[in-house]
Amino acid sequence: MAAEVLNRTPLFDAHRRAGGKLVPFAGYEMPVQYASIIAEASAVRNAVGMFDVSHMARLRFWGERATEFVQWITANDVGKLGDRQGQYSLLTNERGGCVDDIIVYRIAPDEYRMVVNAANHAKDAEWIESQNRFGVAVSDYTDDTAMIAVQGPKAVGVLQDLSDHPDDLASAPAFGVVECQVAGRPVFAARSGYTGEDGFELICSSADAEEVWNALLEAEVVPCGLGARDVLRVEAGLPLYGHELGDDLSPIAAGLGWVIAKNKKFIGSEPIARARAEGTPQKLQGVRIEAKRLPMPGMQVLVDGRVVGEVSSGVYSPLLGCGVAFAFIDAEIERGTACALAVRGKLEPGTIVDKRFYRRG
Amino acid sequence: MKVPSDLLYSKSHEWVRIEGDTATVGITDYAQSELGDIVLVDLPEAGRVVGLDESFATIESVKSVSDIYAPLAGEITATNETLGTQSELVNADPYGSGWLVKIRLADPSQAGSLLTPDAYTAVLES
């Protein structure tokens, strides 16, 4: 295979300076960790950490029929959103599978923004284009901007200290957007994240990215890599496209029925409604093992010696001090059931549990 | 990366300290740094006989699982039992309290094929 030319985010030099270990991820050279994944995850749970998520793609939709278009391609109901409010949602296909999981923000009745997975950037852009019978303008502003997720119990306080609109940041609801300055640079700050903690995701111009990042570093925000991000999202019960979601996986099986509007017609709404009514053969559950071992995708889950499912994501949880995983498990198996996980030739005892291993207190 | 001058090394990033007919074996500073935070070290029982380059242990870190290969053949005479509860010692002190096993060598002359500190440093730099 020919060597792939990797993209770099506007924060690439900052990562190298901070000693980040860079790996290829979704076509970008991204930091997987700086010093320690456990220390980084702990900073986010107990204080504040930040992640360069500039590789995620950012799209803008505008035009008279923007609402109609976004309602057609996404599963959640954007009719629930006011201006400068966002929601977690799905791009669905005709089969009732997912093209991607996304966040949609309404800026104005005729303008929306969308943040989509880096790994699905090209696929999503093509899909959206193919569905645009509404004359809506769509532009891709990924390369002009950077995105920094600031997460943890101290995230809002740190951003308030650096912002010209501290009160707006404090009062923003979940998924609310504040347009303000951080370190004197204009940012689009959305109260969302992928860690189970409070915080904001900041979008700023590429030219301002280092300035914002350095101001956060000076405020003792700990830079965190993809390794910690994966640990934190699994602990918090959050799915990852390609693992818990896919073109041929039902979002109902992944436990995302709450994201899907029942009151509108959208791409794939009929098969999804059927899956909701009839149930899916398997459901996404949590598996917690006793051992300090690393569960990995593809490992089998057994109950009474019978295979009942397979791991889709797994991490070692520093918070719980053991291996935790998501697994698609036969629907009749209840939470609380004792199970075993086949970890590299050994059966490790565990329990089938709620996939939200961690809830913020 | 630390490469102590009084040890021998393998290309798969184990270190060896030979005293008489016994070798103490661990993983190098480079290896622990590549693995990241280590959460489990699965060591063999004392008494097991291992062949050259045979996988005798696994180390699980927060992001990967790695086999550890015997840099020399022989019988395992001791294992570092402290690692059962304090696997992080391999990260903190890979050449000291983070050692893995002691091997009574089947053929001490095999040590001649291990890398000198300079040769191992060259491997890391290549």
Description of the structure:
The complex is a heterodimer of chains A (361) and B (126). Chain A is α+β, with helices and mostly antiparallel strands and 361 residues long. Chain A folds into 3 domains: 12-51 and 144-235, Gyrase A, domain 2, CATH 3.30.1360; 57-140, Alpha-Beta Plaits (2-Layer Sandwich); 281-361, Elongation Factor Tu (Ef-tu), domain 3, CATH 2.40.30. Chain A is built from 9 helices and 19 strands. In chain A, the strands form 4 sheets. Chain A has a 6-stranded mixed beta sheet. A 6-stranded antiparallel β-barrel of chain A has the order 14-17-16-15-18-19. Chain A is globular. The N and C termini of chain A lie far apart (48 Å). The mean pLDDT of chain A is 97. With 126 residues, chain B is an alpha+beta fold. Chain B has a single domain (8-105), classed as RNA polymerase II/Efflux pump adaptor protein, barrel-sandwich hybrid domain (OB fold (Dihydrolipoamide Acetyltransferase, E2P), Beta Barrel), CATH 2.40.50.100. In chain B, 16% of the residues lie in helices and 35% in strands. Chain B has helices at residues 29-35, 89-92, 117-125, and strands spanning 8-9, 14-19, 22-27, 38-42, 49-50, 55-61, 65-69, 74-79, 101-105. Chain B is globular and about 35 Å long. Chain A binds chain B through residues 32-33, 36-39, 227, 231, 291-294, 296, 315-316, 318, 344, and chain B through 36-37, 39-40, 58, 60-65, 87.
Keywords:
heterodimer, A: 361 residues, alpha+beta, Gyrase A, domain 2, Alpha-Beta Plaits, Elongation Factor Tu (Ef-tu), domain 3, 3 domains, six-stranded mixed β-sheet, six-stranded antiparallel barrel, 19 strands, B: 126 residues, OB fold (Dihydrolipoamide Acetyltransferase, E2P), six-stranded antiparallel β-sheet, three-stranded antiparallel β-sheet, 3 helices
